[in-house]
Amino acid sequence: MCTRAMESDCRIPMSCLRPRILALHALFWGLVSLRVFGAALLSDEKATVSVTKAVSAPCWQLEEFVVAKECSACEGFHSKSVPACSQTGFVETINCTKSNREEFKSCRSTKMEDRLFWKFEGTMLALTVVFAIVVVARQRSLDRKASDKVRRQIESI
After folding, report:
1. Residue 42 pLDDT > 70, yes or no?
2. 152 vs 61, which has greater pLDDT?
3. What are the tens digits of pLDDT across the range 57-76?
4. In angstroms, rounded to a whole number, what is the distance separating the alpha carbons of residues 146 and 8?
5. Are 16 and 2 in contact (CB under 8 A)?
6. Edge-to-edge strands of the sheet including 90-96?
7. SS3 for 105?
8. Which of 45, 53, 113, 146 has its CA 20 to 30 A from that of 120?
9. d(CA 59, CA 94)
10. Whole-number mean pLDDT of the chain?
11. Helix or strand holding residue 148 (H, E)
């Protein structure tokens, strides 16, 4: 536990326990949670809206199918003419076995997943470096304040 006599040993400064700081932390983490859970809810709503808007469900939802062409990026013409391209930017060609229809299905490619993963990793690494620098700077500042306080106490004797 941190006491007044050994203030330099305290790693969490008492100023961080002020109600204003705690409220800011709660607000920040609340917004982060809202962003994460809101995105999940929004994607669920989009999925239900798109299913209800469709006059007839795609054949790959109703019957068995065979993938004719693996997941690939949508090119210029496909991206404007095929609605499945607008969701992820990638599409695979599906052949339905019963109705013998060929349709397009939106998919997530491994290239896209890799890019998103490394983008996330890079962001986390950058944040780690930034917050490590902030922690070191804050600790040096606290150590300097504690040293000045000790020096003033010694000088006053």
Report:
1. no
2. 152
3. 777 778 888 888 888 888 87
4. 6
5. no
6. 65-73, 90-96, 102-106
7. strand
8. 45
9. 9
10. 79
11. helix 110-156
Per-residue 3-state assignment (H helix, E strand, C coil) for 14-80: HHHHCHHHHHHHHHHHHHHHHHHHHHHHHHHHHHHHHHHHCCCCCHHHHCCEEEEEEEEECCHHHHH
Residue type, 12: I
Q: Look at residue 56 in the predicted model and tell me its pLDDT.
A: 74
CB 94 within 8 A of CB 103: yes
Q: What is d(CA 22, CA 28) in angstroms, rounded to the nearest whole number?
A: 10
Amino acid at 26: A
Rounded Cα distance, 25 and 31, in Å? 10
Given a cut of 90, whether residue 2 has pLDDT beyond it is no
Question: Residue 150 above 70 pLDDT?
Answer: yes
Return the amino acid letter for 154.
Answer: I
Single-letter code of the amino acid located at 70: E
Burial of 59: CB neighbours in 10 Å, binned 0-12, 13-18, 19+ = buried
Of 105, 107, 91, the closest CA to residue 58 belongs to 105
Q: 79, 89 in Cβ contact below 8 A? A: yes
